[in-house]
Structures are given as C-alpha cells and as structure tokens.
Amino acid sequence: MDYDVIIIGGGPSGLSTALHLQRIAPQLSPRILLLEKEHYPRPKLCAGGLTLDAEILLERLDLNLDEVPHVFADDIHFDFESKGLTVRIPKRHALRVIRRAEFDHWLAQKAEGRGLEIREGITVRNVIPDTDGVAIETGQGQLRAQVVVGADGSNGITRRCIFPKAAVYTARVLEVLTPSQPPPNPTVVLSDLGEVPAGRWGREGVAFFDFFPVPDNIAGYVWDFPTQVNGAPMRCWGIYDTNILANSKRPQLKESLAREMSRLGFDLDRYEIQGYPIRWFSPENEMSVPRVLLVGDAAGADPIFGEGISIALGYGTIAAREISESFRRREFSFGGYRLRVLRSALGQTLIARWIIAFLIYPLKWRWFQILLWRFLKPIVILFAWLFVLNWGKRIR
Ligand SMILES: Cc1cc2nc3c(=O)[nH]c(=O)nc-3n(C[C@H](O)[C@H](O)[C@H](O)COP(=O)(O)OP(=O)(O)OC[C@H]3O[C@@H](n4cnc5c(N)ncnc54)[C@H](O)[C@@H]3O)c2cc1C
Questions:
Q1: Which of 32, 104, 240, 281 gives 300 a disulfide partner, CB atoms 3.0 to 4.6 angstroms apart?
Q2: Ligand 1 pocket by C-beta < 6 Å: which residues?
Q3: pTM over 0.90
Q4: What pLDDT, in 10s, does the model give residues 22-31?
C-alpha cells in the first residue's frame, strides 16, 4: 500500500482533515498524502467571508489568521429593498474577509510546515474502492491507499465515482470584483429599487446581504462585501441562488446582480463576471462508502447562504476523528460517518440551515420578506445565534 490516507483536494476541507489527523493521530502523519490538481496560490472563486466559527476552528489548530491578508466587516446587514437588520458582535468584527488564493496557500504551507506531504499539479481521474483499499488513477499514474477522503469540492471526481447516480443539489453563484468606490461619473442611473441608503459608501466595513431577488423566484440573495486585492480596497459582489424555486420562471441571475450594482453606481458590464456551483447539504446526501468518505462541498455546504469555509473546516474535524478510530479498530466501513456528522454541532447547524432555507425561500412573497427582514428582527437574530452561528466551539 502506498499510503494509509490519501486526501483528494487541497481546499479548506482537505487541509483541515490533514491538519486534524496530524494532531489526533500523529503516527499516521508520515503516511498521509494530499493531492491538489492546481499549484498554490491557485485562484478559487469565493467571496472569502469567514464567520466566527471558522476562526474558532482555526484557533483550535493553533493557527493565527492575522497572518493572512484580510479586511474586517464590523457589521453584517441583511436587507430587503433598502431596509433590514444589522448584526454586530460586541467587541469584535462580524466577518473577516480573506482572498481564497492567499488563505488556501497559507493553510497548505502550515500543513507542510507540520510535516504533511502535499503533491500539487496532480489531477485525480478515477477513484476505485475495493475490499483491501482504494486505487486512485491520476494524470501521473496510479496510487493506492487504505482510506481516501474526497475533499475535491462541489464537482469533485470522488463523489461522482462513488455515487454516480445520487441526486445533487447545487446552487448557482456569480461573483464580481470592483473597486471599493463607484466610478465618479457612473454611466448608469439609479434604478427603481430606491435610493442608496444615506452614507452607504461611508460604511466601508459592512457586509451586505440583500434578499430582493426572492419574490422573483431567485431563492437567495445579492451580496456586497468589502475586500482587498494586493492590499488595495475592493468590493466583492455576487448573487446566490439555491435553485429551490427552479420550477418557477426566474430572471437571469446576471440581471438581478446588475440591477443591484447599478443602484449603487456600478455598471456590471465593466467588470469580469465568473460563476461556480455550490453543492449544498441535504439530509439525504450520502457521505461515505467503505474506505472512502466525503468532506466539505463534496458532502454539502450551507444551503441558506452557501457559506462553506467554516463548514469545510468542521467536516475536517469529524472526518479526522472517524479515520483515526477506523485505523485503531482496523475497520474501514465508515458506516457510521454520516450519522456522526448529523449528530455533531456541524450536522445540527446544517440540518437547521436546511430547514430554514426551505422556510424562508419558498415563502417568497414580498410581504413575507418584508416581515422577516424588517419586523421580525429579534426572532431572526435569536435563530441565527442559536442555529446558524456558534457551532464551532461545540464540535468535537
Ligand atoms: C462565488 C462563491 C462565493 C463564495 N463565498 C463564500 C464566502 O464568502 N464564505 C464562505 O464560507 N463560503 C463561500 N463560498 C463557498 C466556499 O467557497 C466553499 O464552500 C469551500 O471552498 C468548500 O471547500 P472545499 O475544501 O470543500 O472545496 P474547494 O475549496 O472547492 O476545494 C477543492 C479542491 O480540490 C481540488 N480538486 C478538485 N478536483 C480535483 C481532482 N480531480 N484532483 C485533485 N484535486 C482536485 C481543487 O483544485 C480545490 O483546490 C463561496 C462559493 C462560491 C462559488
């Protein structure tokens, strides 16, 4: 056998699995290999918003996020047609925004610094489990391992090999980077969505989530985060659609994003727009077969917001424990992995988020969205605090 554990994919879920395994089962460490098809620092389409839970999970690995270039959003504002509720966490930032190329590269360097082997530029083409182990076919030949972790993202080859026929729930997502301020003479006029709230551009440290597209059957929101690129202040915009309302007639995603950006003085056509799917969690998602388990987007991210970085780090914690115990018992069926995930603090937040997504998006009427984001503020904040955030410190 070439390796005990091969992790396919060097994003946050794969690197978290490797770092947690190295910590709880150091004897396995020399026999762990992580395969990444790109070379760090590699581009990754993502707004880079890190919640408190991501920070807690990284702190527990003795990693200091201040080493990664970032900007803080002190407030998160949830909006519906220019009014809504603001979330502020006492004495700290509400969101830390990183660029994924830098964050993932930093995490990979930390893993290598702790003695973990990462091979870059290796694309896995096939994953074939058998009774004694798993064969992995790559562009550069075949490898074998006792156990394989599929950390290869929403479109990953691992999931497609082990569950070729399983239903896949994916969100459509578009993203755009712009300078932090609108151009002085915008070529577009403010649209019929209302005036820009007073002082909007004076509030650099605010991350906006605007749910105005929901009544148009886009089950998601437009975001607008402060960020930086090579130290220059920028904004990252995007639109997220879970596809929960896919059976109804919907406008083009680009149209709704352009509408919001034009309201704020930006012309979408002047910027490069990119898209990528996010596979979200559903309680019916399969997560393992004997000798192979899935983590991160391959297993399922948050359905409400498409938040996946903290979730990916959380899957790594649970997968590492599962693998460590399987080597102790010399039993690799992973029959209990899905249940372990579902029963964990991570699973509880994912189930809660799945239920909330199926409440707030199908109830798509304008009056309900106004009620939710403007009038039910204390209830929304309580629910968010209890079910969406604060799971990181409870995960084992
Ligand atoms: C537009 C957009 C914006 C987002 N914004 C946010 C946000 O603000 N906050 C947040 O928390 N989440 C956000 N997300 C979600 C987040 O990006 C993902 O949930 C997260 O990246 C999942 O991590 P992962 O490690 O599972 O997968 P990935 O980060 O996708 O990593 C998978 C890795 O596997 C590698 N790989 C793939 N196939 C192979 C192969 N065959 N062989 C070898 N390697 C392979 C890839 O190169 C990649 O490095 C966003 C997603 C999108 C699309």
A1: 281
A2: 8-14, 35-38, 44-49, 123-124, 151-153, 156-157, 173, 175, 238, 276, 278, 296-297, 301, 306-310, 312
A3: yes
A4: 999 999 999 9
